[in-house]
Amino acid sequence: MSASRAIKIAPSILAADFANFGAECAAACAQGADWIHVDVMDGHFVPNITFGPATCAAIRPHISGVMDVHLMISPVDAYIEDFVRAGADILTAHVEAGPHIHRTLQAIRASGAKAGVALNPGTPAEAVAHVLDLADLVCVMTVNPGFGGQKFIDMSAKIRTLREMIGDRPIHIEIDGGVDPTTAPIVAGAGADVLVAGSAVFRGGSVDNPAPYGENIRAIRAAAEGTWV
Ligand code: DX5
Ligand code: ZN
Q1: Do 26 and 65 touch, CB atoms closer than 8 A?
Q2: Which of 39, 89, 136, 193 is catalytic?
Q3: Residue 64 C-alpha to ligand 2 middle, in angstroms?
Q4: Domains of the chain by range and CATH?
Q5: For the residues 27-48, what does the mean pLDDT come to?
Q6: What pLDDT, on a 0 to 100 scale, did the predictor assign at position 228?
Q7: Which bound ligand lies closest to the C-alpha atom of 198?
């Protein structure tokens, strides 16, 4: 990793205590999280339902860093303003969520948030070739979206292709799914700089015992930076 592309760890609250999101977000931030990753699912684009803008607005004051909202919903456009009003700093839509990802990314940026575009494992890097100038982040899914705790799918070739396509443009490559200290070096080595991790951050701890969150975050970061022993 070059020093200019510092690794960011984004705990996913999908693996946190759903009855205690505010305290979970605050604990993860206090323990070293750079971003908080918020998984919105609609039971239509993915076979699971989580929560919507009201929950995002409720947790926003408990997040000291970036609120990174991953929309696993279709359609997207009608809800962009609601999520931006709820405090999303980054709003990521799936390229597979509809026929007009270009329009969606334009709308996200016009609403004042940074725009992300996500790719399912079966979708090639080339699907975002003509929207990269509208994107601040490309999210490479390393599981099929819908659930936490799934097995990592190696997308290294896609990550390398995207890194080449992006060149020196200021666009993050985020990895989502199955990231832990074993898989983090694979994706960081291929060119990713934002690592989402749910189970691997929240395991072993709680809001009353948050120290394991910090240990887990440091382990993933160290592994990604190549210093894990
Ligand atoms: C999956 C979600 C992920 C998920 C990652 O649909 O987008 O953010 O929470 O969870 P882990 O890290 O447990 O694979
Ligand atoms: Zn996600």
Answers
A1: no
A2: 39
A3: 19
A4: 8-224 (3.20.20.70)
A5: 98
A6: 60
A7: 1
- Ligand 1 atom with the shortest distance to the CA of 46: 6
Give the ligand 1 atom nearest the CA of 14: 9
Long-range contacts of 49-58 (CB under 8 A, 24+ apart): 50/14, 52/79, 52/82, 53/79, 53/82, 53/83, 53/85, 53/86, 54/86, 55/21, 56/83, 56/86, 56/87, 56/88, 57/85, 57/86, 57/87, 58/21, 58/22
Burial degree of 129 (CB within 10 A; 0-12, 13-18, 19+):
exposed
Name the active-site residue from 34, 136, 176, 193. Answer: 176
Is there a catalytic annotation at residue 136?
no
Tokens found for residue 103: 């329009």
Query: How far, in Å, from the CA of 30 to the mean position of ligand 2?
Result: 21
Distance, in Å, from the CA atom of 4 to the CA atom of 35, rounded to the nearest integer, reads 18
What distances in angstroms separate CA 74 from CA 41, 119, 152, one per listed residue? Answer: 9, 14, 24
The mean of the pLDDT values for the chain is 96
The predicted structure's pLDDT at residue 3: 41
pLDDT bracket for residue 23 (50, 70, 90): very high
